[in-house]
Amino acid sequence: MLAKLSEIPVDCGMKYLPVLCFFLLHPISEAASLIATSPNATNMSSVNLTAEGTSNWAIWNSRTNPDTTPAPDFFMAGETTGSISEISRTSGSGVRGTDSLTSYPTGVFTWTNSNDNTVPDQISGMFTTTDQTTIGVQFSITDLPALSGGLVYQINVYGSAFRGRAEVTASVSSLTAVVDGITKAEAKAVEQYQFFYNPDSAIDVLTLRSLLEVDNGSNAHALLYGVSIAVVPEPSSLLLSAFGLLSILGLRRR
After folding, report:
1. Alpha carbon distance, N-terminus to C-terminus of the chain
2. Which of 1, 43, 128, 219 has the fewest CB atoms below 10 angstroms from its CB?
3. Is residue 229 scored above 90 in pLDDT?
4. What is the extent of the structural domain holding 230?
């Protein structure tokens, strides 16, 4: 029978601390996980999709309004880890781009690996009919193998809003994570919504939706620009690893 923590001598506690850390880092069974790394979005002045999306990335750009054939404006890296879908509406059909680019960011997105290496000066993004807080835009990610050893997928979603605030939701099975956007006026400055995700299997479908949470004026809307996928150490596992290393070093000093 295990002794109570209060009954374990200090020397003994130091002795078994690395073992405890090992079991914390390597649980008996691993289940799907999905969390938002922050409840709020982050403004981005530059995004190198090749650097951020080491597993895969995609960006959506259309100058057609409405956009009936968005595929020609869809860029994606050549990697095979993760399949990223086209943009669609959360309900109904039809998405929009625009050829009026006065409010769109200039020179934010760059990349060097794609089926088309021409980076547009301005990315218009994809959105729905304006002034709709109950209908937004969405896409999905599949074909991501389950990870182990304290690794997760870092999913960076890039979007914005016009005359309002967006809300981005990630969901798979019964798991949901939400990130609130930043209230925007006219300019559609790029925001990053970040999630950590580990599926049960490659057939899991991760759905990411952007809705207009706050409507502050005529033609207000939420939009999506792109997404990047990378494999990273889970922060909690990284901290526990450092904690375990420090305890080992402390034990050696003793």
Report:
1. 28
2. 1
3. yes
4. 31-234
Tokens 């309900």, located at residue: 91
- Of 216, 248, 226, 223, give the one whose Cα is nearest residue 59: 226
Give the tokens for residue 117: 């290496």
Mind listing the pLDDT tens digit for each residue in 116-171? 667 777 888 888 877 788 889 999 999 999 999 999 999 999 999 988 999 999 99
Describe the chain by its helix, strand, coil percentages, rounded to 5.
20, 40, 45
DSSP letters, 168-231, are EEEEETTEEEEEE---BSS----EEEEEEEE-SSTT--EEEEEEEEEE-STT-EEEEEEEEEEE
CATH number at residue 61: 2.60.120.260
SS3 158: strand
